[in-house]
Amino acid sequence: MSQTFRELLKTIGSGVHTGKDLSRSEAAEATRQMLLKEATPAQIGAFLIAHRIKRPSPEELAGMLDIYDELGPRLDINHLPFEKPVVIFGNPYDGRTRTVSVSPITTLMLVASGVPVVLHGGDIMPTKYGLPLVTLWQGLGIDFTQKNFTKAQEFLEKTGLTFIYLPTHFPLAYDLVPYRDQIGKRPPIATMELMWLPCTGNIHPISGYVHPPTEERFLKTFAMKGISYFTSIKGLEGSCDLACSRTAIIGFGQGGESPFFERFLLDPRDYGFSPTDVHLESTEQAIALMQELIQGQDNELKDAAILNGGFYLWRCGVCDDLKAGFEQAEVMLKEGKLAEKLKEMASL
């Protein structure tokens, strides 16, 4: 048993009146001992549920990210043949259960337009056990679970896209997954993962969330990590997907010499989009809908694909305004640009 970890656990687990937040360095040490299994299983489970009840502070999240940066995989993006910042999508690892994701289509639009994208996550995961991104990509013919880290780096350099797959690329983090099921709640690690950046340099983090306090933690944690340019999305099921059924609440962290945060509201109805989100019935249904769109066929997922693709084409600097983004997204679907890009990737 780690006596050091025991003291850190006592700090956060002492209740409302005497419990305290950890410092950034203390949170980093606690995360290190959990990843390296220096803490016992009993200590790790107790820490994760106590931290969940207390709620993580930005300082603690920054400390956790520090250790993920130290012990986790780090992509080299300094010599990529792309001018645009590398987009890093932070979606919940436990997937989707209610709505069909358009994330792969959005990603293909960005990559086909010269915007490199990094994704990260794992397999079907507690506590939601939803449909994960890696499964959707497998259904489209790209199996990221079969690539070692060197191949993942090479795939990014050749195609502009890669996926950090936890079981293979970061097994230390993946070993904490069973605790999510055993404690029955998402631990604070699940919040930290939405901000995890497996590379540094010219990057554009995009983080999805459900509850407004999570976005507040994003702002403060990113500031502590020296990140001033980012996007936050109150998305479908906490993902980075904009909803068709409601006004999107979006945050722009604007970098530069004088960084600032800007709120942006996007009502899909103002641009003629259908006010409904496509219900998820099965993995096969989701993959079939995406495949049809990629091949230029219309279906009920089209509005969500154009809404999301157009927004991100604008936000990532491909198009000058939202209207142009939506127009380009529709043209890319119609002219088979995504099918061409997917075919190129599959050949590699």
The multimeric state of the shown protein is single chain
Mind summarizing the main beta sheet?
7 strands, mixed
CATH architecture of the largest domain: 3-Layer(aba) Sandwich
The CATH homologous superfamily of the largest domain: Nucleoside phosphorylase/phosphoribosyltransferase catalytic domain
Number of domains: 2
Strand content: 5-15%
- According to CATH, what is the topology of the largest domain? Pyrimidine Nucleoside Phosphorylase, Chain A, domain 2
- What structural category do the secondary elements indicate? alpha/beta
Helix content: 40-55%
CATH class categorisation of the largest domain: Alpha Beta
**How far from one another are the termini?**
47 Å
The SSE order reads HHHHEHEHHEHHHHEHEEEHHHH
Number of E strands: 7
Number of helices: 16
How would you write the strand order of the largest sheet? 3-2-1-4-5-6-7
Q: Radius of gyration, Cα only, in angstroms?
A: 20 Å
- Can you tell me the overall shape? globular
Uncertain stretches of 5 or more adjacent residues: none
Describe this protein's structure.
With 348 residues, the chain is α/β, with parallel strands linked by helices. The chain is built from 16 helices and 7 strands. The chain has 2 domains: 3-71, Transferase, Pyrimidine Nucleoside Phosphorylase, Chain C (Transferase, Pyrimidine Nucleoside Phosphorylase, Chain A, domain 3, Up-down Bundle), CATH 1.20.970; 86-347, Nucleoside phosphorylase/phosphoribosyltransferase catalytic domain (Pyrimidine Nucleoside Phosphorylase, Chain A, domain 2, 3-Layer(aba) Sandwich), CATH 3.40.1030.10. Strands 3-2-1-4-5-6-7 form a 7-stranded mixed beta sheet, sandwiched between helices. α5 (103-112) links the parallel β1 (86-90) and β2 (117-121). α14 crosses α15 (322-334). The mean pLDDT is 96.
